[in-house]
Amino acid sequence: MNDKDREEINKEDKMIVVYDEEGNEKLISAEVWREEVLPVHLKINFDNPDNLYNLIVISLQDGFYLEILEATEVLIKIDPDKERSYNARGILLMSLDDLDGAEKLLKKYINEFGATGVILTNLAKVYDKKNQKLKSIETLWEALEHDPNQDSGLMWWAAIHREKAGEKGFYDAMRKAATIKGSWRPQLWLARELLEKKDLKKAKKYYSKILKMAEDSFDALMQISGDLGNNGYIDEVIELIYPIYVLEKHSPEVGFNILQCFIEKKEYFEGEKLLAKLYDLENPTIKENLIHFSKEFESLKN
């Protein structure tokens, strides 16, 4: 197994799904992963920042905090991507309730490398945990001014305003974020609002501008295809998304949305062409999805 083999924890029986080199699914206990597998994988990747970072992210998600203390220190030393290494260490310190340590670390990054949206968002989280609410909100807005398209910061910003003023507050927050130069993610949500009001024409204007800026973004294509499909605009998914969909950039999940549209339109010829490309990925994690779509297309032929 390598660092990408571990897939997810089953919370009920505390088992982890992993895949061997042949793509076969196996189960091991979370305890075995934590005590026997993870330490070995961490150490053998102390000279590989990408693999080490992936293991750290997985461990943060699973709550294995103490197990990666040393690894996050090593990552800061070896990783050319200083933002992600400092960010990972900062999140870990917050998870361990070392708020002063996290604040000091994130400020050190800003002093040495300059402020970024992600670093400022996590600094805002530190202030929030310290109950410094005003300072947290001010720092969060500063984070969005640096990068209005970071999902975590934007959704937190909108959630704060939703708590105060409901859905109107949520969309008003998105409208404010959409005024920041270079923004496109807030506009995704404004387009969704328009679709829910059946105003496809205005929504498509947003999508046209978004795709000029974020055609390579998985998030953009995923939300646009999902929102259009969920609101019944199947033709528009094929019109806007299918021509620019590239497997290597946009991931299989966007392809699933497109395949579903072909099924609903009963266009099995184009659908099976895309399905064949997805099969060519030989990705065991999407095998069941592809089998499902294969059966759907076969049923259309009968």
Q: Which architecture of the domain at 194-302 per CATH?
A: Alpha Horseshoe
Q: What Rg, in angstroms, do the CA atoms define?
A: 22 Å
Summed over residues and divided by their number, the pLDDT gives a mean of: 93
Structural class given helices, strands, pairing?
mainly alpha
Largest sheet: 3 strands, antiparallel
| Run of helices and strands | EEEHHHHHHHHHHHHHHH
Shape: flat
Span of the ends, CA to CA: 42 Å
Number of helices: 15
The portion of residues assigned to helices is over 70%
How would you write the strand order of the largest sheet?
1-2-3
Task: Briefly say what this structure is.
The chain is mainly alpha-helical and 302 residues long. It contains 15 helices and three strands. The protein is flat and about 65 Å long.
What does this structure look like?
This protein starts with 7 loop residues before the first strand and ends with a helix. It has helices at residues 30-44, 49-62, 69-78, 82-95, 99-113, 117-129, 133-146, 151-177, 185-196, 200-214, 218-230, 234-240, 247-264, 268-280, 287-301, and strands spanning 8-10, 15-19, 25-29. Mean pLDDT is 93; it is low at 1-12. Among the domains are: 1-78, no CATH class; 194-302, Serine Threonine Protein Phosphatase 5, Tetratricopeptide repeat. A hairpin with a 4-residue loop joins strand 1 (8-10) and strand 2 (15-19). With 302 residues, the chain is mostly helical. The radius of gyration is 22 Å and the shape is flat. A 3-stranded antiparallel sheet has the order 1-2-3. The protein is built from 15 helices and 3 strands.
